[in-house]
Amino acid sequence: MKNLKTYTNEELQNIIESIGEKKFRAKQLFEWIHGKRVNQMDDITVLSKKIIEKISLNGYTVQSLSKVKRFDSKDKHTHKYLFKLEDDHVIESVLMKYHHGYSACLSTQVGCRMGCNFCASTKAGLVRNLTAGEIVDQIYQMEKDLNISISNIVLMGTGEPLDNFEEVVKFFRIVHDELGKNLGYRHITLSTCGLVPKIYELANLNIPITLSISLHSPFDDKRKEIMPIANKYSIDEIIKACKYYFNSTGRRITFEYTLIKGVNDGEREARAIGKLIKGLNAHVNLIPLNEIRESELETSTDGNVQNFKCILEKIGVNSTIRREMGLDINAACGQLRKDYMDAH
Ligand code: SAH
User: Fold this and answer.
1) Residue 139 Cα to ligand 1 middle (Å)
2) Which of 139, 11, 83 is nearest to 2 (CA)?
3) Adjacent-strand bridge partners of 256
4) pTM of the entire structure?
5) How far apart (Å, rounded) are the C-alpha atoms in residues 20 and 134?
């Protein structure tokens, strides 16, 4: 069966018309699935039993993620979820409470094929892409579970969002639709290790989300050591694509920089970042490495982290240090899903 949750409003209209029903029925269907959040066909009472039956007979249904487990941090500001998909694969999502509201970190793939050597999500490779319905349902299930409303979305969970381009774009359209969650594009951030052609494609779609680049080194040779994708696209090409993105969407770029002891946390790197992103008016998120079992890499010392930030400041680059939240529940970087897989 095909999951109705995974179609945009426009796609639903085509489906409904193709089975001989009137277009406005699609809007009703979309509103009940994404606005009222029904979890099964029979609950869509706005449509007659006959139409519901017809939709089902054509192979469509409403599917939902099922919650395997929720982990709460001691301070109750971070909740980590494991969800099971229809085919029994497991994904993770994180909910974080900030003073300005709830922010959700969503997965876009089951596993990942990018192979960054400090990241737990990629260690077992890519299993499959998530559908748009599976991406958006992470929001719905977390909101329902805690009876809250999420105001910010970051695609920084498991997976490389630009490696699952079509479904991720459909997800944007679904979550933005006023009959559904009605979330402004400005409240969405997509993080990528730098799939250059896809950055151009995204820029041309007129979906002004915030683009965040996982830089992790201002030098191509060092970047190649820790991120295999750097063998395919150079930093220069990424920066050019970022400029294009900024000019097309008006959205400022952010850069993520995971600080790894002795690998990328020196003064030379900090100064080079300054040169590299000058003129982009970008913001840098410094993330002290969250150490994982599968790698020997260590996190930077507090002194080095502060020093790095200081140098950036002196050369006029804005940065914040992002302390990973919920470390007591392994809330970062795919470690929970991996633990679950190792145990089952
Ligand atoms: N594939 C996307 C999104 C995934 S992860 C990307 O590469 O951007 C979101 C961020 O967490 C990325 O910047 C990623 O490099 C970083 N990250 C992954 N593992 C980490 C770890 N162990 N410690 C700190 N940051 C990590």
Assistant:
1) 20
2) 11
3) 214, 285
4) 0.96
5) 27
* 51-110 tens-digit pLDDT: 999 999 999 999 999 999 999 999 899 999 999 999 999 999 999 999 889 999 999 999
One-letter amino acid identity for 219? F
C-alpha of residue 212 to centroid of ligand 1, in Å: 11
3-state secondary structure labels for all residues of 187-207: HEEEEECCCHHHHHHHHCCCC
Mean pLDDT on 102-127: 96
125 contact partners, CB below 8 Å, separation of at least 6: 111, 112, 113
- Does any ligand 1 atom lie closer than 6 A to the CB of residue 287? yes
Neighbours of 181 (CB within 10 A): 19
Q: Which tokens belong to 103? A: 């922010």
Return the number of other C-beta atoms located less than 10 Å from residue 194's C-beta: 26
167 as an active site residue: the answer is no
Cα 283 from Cα 254, distance rounded (Å): 5
List pLDDT tens digits, range 179-191: 999 999 999 999 9
Take residue 74 and report the two structure tokens written for it.
């001691």
